Amino acid sequence: MRILQLCNKSPWPPKEGGSIAMNAVTQSLLMEGHIVKVIAMNTHKYTVRLEDIPEDYKYQTGIALGEVDLRIRPLKAFWHLFSKHSYIVRRFESKDFRNVLRNTLVARRFDVIQLETLYLTPYIKDIRELSDAKIVLRSHNIEHQIWQRYAENTNNPLKKVYLKLLAGELKNYEVKHSNDYDGIIPITDVDRAFFEQHTTDAKIMTLPFALKAINVKNHTATKTKNSLFHIGSMDWLPNQEGIIWFLDKVWPEIYQNFPDLTFSLAGRNMPEWIQKRNDPGLAIDGEVENAYKYMQSKNMMIVPLFSGSGIRIKILEGMLNKNIVITTSIGAEGIDATDGEHLLVADDKDAFKRQIQYCMDNPAEADKIGENAAQLVKEHYNLKDNAKKLTEFYQELTEANG
Q1: Which CATH number describes the domain made up of 214-380?
Q2: Residues 52-96: tens digit of each pLDDT
Q3: Are 180 and 171 in contact (CB under 8 A)?
């Protein structure tokens, strides 16, 4: 089949959750022998130059970029509060991206056009006008839930009100447009239930994110035992929220009890206010060249998420690398893992302290959790199985109406 994949950021390089997830879809489609074309948004937060993309990737995907300005305009954001439109979604509308899309649709025919995230939805009108392809939403999250949960966790009353308004606008948009797609592919059954509640016509299939485990080598022997770490895009609000909470509420007592323990922070776009922190035992590593090697050099992965939705790719990567993952119920949401067997769940500061204490006092049992985690990911989140399921879904969708 001929597939057009529309992305809210470039799948290449696959260095953070969103790009890793989209690249996995690209690789799945290519693995199954489909003809793939990628059009991606190029933004100030995630900028890619075509000349930096490997030639074989450009040849396989014909990747094209459309410029999108996602910078917040306070005045526009304010006036949108009095409109029926979601400002969060409106920011993804771009004349340049629309022109790239329309020119592609005029020049080529596609069987399926996959929208990576809700934020590509404004371009459905252009697609329907110029193409008879089936339109599929690959839902990475229930987007309004991220903002809703972030609002619930903020202490600033004015900010809380504003975030709730944004979340409400976004929820209305998600509900209103849930019938605009021919197919929807959420990543968890929890997300699937949301779409089933609000759509009547779209064909829906749950398909979790997948990782290409065959390329991951086991370097467990090189792990630094007395090490905690967190890795993730640090311009994402839920990550910032969780890390500042952990540093303020949990880390001081943990370090006092275990002065040989270190806590390392890695991720792109590390805020300056985090870089300036000088907490004892804290190492700010920023963006690392190879996330897998970084994970393989550490032991316990800390993911204190209190907002967000969908599946956290970095947690699956940590599990695959046999890290002992300590996260919240929200962080573990959507992952078919058992607390105490594949990862450790902690929803407040005392629970985080207990779980870290457990790992320090019982290293053999903790290592077994890492072993179990890696096996789970290899069996249930592998790229080969996902590729076949995605192809079958596309075939059923395109054959349904001839």
Answers
A1: 3.40.50.2000
A2: 999 999 999 999 999 999 886 666 666 666 666 788 899 999 999
A3: no
